[in-house]
Design goal:
Number of strands: 7
CATH superfamily of the largest domain: Histidine kinase-like ATPase, C-terminal domain
Largest sheet: 5 strands, mixed
Distance between the termini: 79 Å
CATH topology of the largest domain: Heat Shock Protein 90
Strand content: 5-15%
Strand order of the largest sheet: 2-4-5-7-6
Number of domains: 3
CATH architecture of the largest domain: 2-Layer Sandwich
């Protein structure tokens, strides 16, 4: 029987076996594969009516080829199942991280609420008593006593304002992040290129937004230097300048010629956008040799 006359290519039966191994359960796919072997052997062998040894050889070949197709199909099915499992695990991890972040934010809000309650409760009670006393004295036409009560109320209000400012300052300082530790971990994770770090002690503590943005920018800059510019040495310098922080990234690679041509890649454009969002700026220039990126933004954001 000439299968080509019916538009059937010789490889189609093996493809069907592989697809069955991917789409069907293992036992059903295995039974389908054996059926394919017998069917193909009968189609190819019986009309030729050759010696039984030739028929056995053809059957063995069919078994081997269909077995190979079946094995490849099952491998593909297992790989697809593994990908689905990894996606599920990743989704579960991401949801768990989101829940943890929400719990941390809730805990922080509760801590702030308790602190404000403890801080303001006493002062507001004292302020209320002094105001009530001043009102009562005014009603008795005791202007001197009322004035003294108003003076005490004013001092209580001033102390309350000072304590609130101190609490806010402490809250901000507790949210500062040491960027140097993250940069050191980044440098240690790249073995193919020498990463040099120059970290100013005065610039280590940063606000969370500034630390996050600068870390992402340094990661992107180092990645560009290593993967695209072919740099063998990258120097990252962190400096504090008053209320601002600056980061410079220098390498000895090929540079980024498209930046000055107005065709910057997504990486450099994203870095510039991060700085702009924080009220900072990014400057790019050529070095000799290599490329230089300078980042500057406020520290306490």
């Amino acid at each position: 029987m000439d299968l080509l006359a019916f538009g059937v290519t010789p490889g189609l039966p093996f493809l069907v076996t592989a697809l069955a191994a991917v789409l069907l359960p293992a036992r059903m796919a295995l039974g389908f594969g054996f059926a394919q072997v017998l069917l193909n052997t009968g189609i190819y062998a019986l009309p030729q009516a050759g010696a039984w040894l030739d028929q056995f050889g053809l059957l063995s070949s069919m078994l081997a080829l269909h077995g190979l197709a079946f094995g490849l199909g099952r491998m593909a099915a297992a790989e697809a199942e593994k990908r689905r499992w990894l996606q599920a695990v990743l989704a579960e991890q991401l949801s768990g991280e989101h829940l943890l972040a929400e719990q941390m934010r809730y805990s922080e809000r509760m801590q702030i609420a308790r602190e404000l309650h403890d801080l303001m409760g006493h002062h507001l009670t004292a302020l209320n008593l002094q105001l009530q006393l001043g009102g009562a004295l005014l009603a008795r036409q005791d202007a001197g006593g009322a004035g003294q009560a108003m003076g005490r109320a004013e001092r209580v209000a001033a102390q309350l304002l000072a304590d609130v400012r101190e609490a806010v300052s402490q809250q901000r300082s507790s949210q500062r992040i040491d960027l140097s530790a993250a940069l050191q971990a980044l440098a240690e994770g790249i073995a193919s290129t020498r990463i040099e770090l120059a970290l100013d002690e005065a610039a280590r503590d940063l606000g969370p937004r500034a630390a996050h943005a600068l870390l992402r920018c340094v990661q992107e800059g180092v990645t560009n230097s290593v993967r695209h510019a072919g740099a063998r040495r990258v120097r990252v310098e962190l400096q504090g300048q008053g209320e601002a922080v600056t980061v410079s990234i220098d390498d000895d690679g090929r540079g980024a010629p498209n930046w000055h041509a107005g065709r910057a890649g997504n990486g450099l454009s994203g870095m510039a956008e991060r700085m702009t969002e924080l009220g900072g700026q990014m400057r790019v220039s050529r070095a000799s040799p290599g490329f230089r990126i300078e980042l500057r933004c406020p520290r306490w954001v």
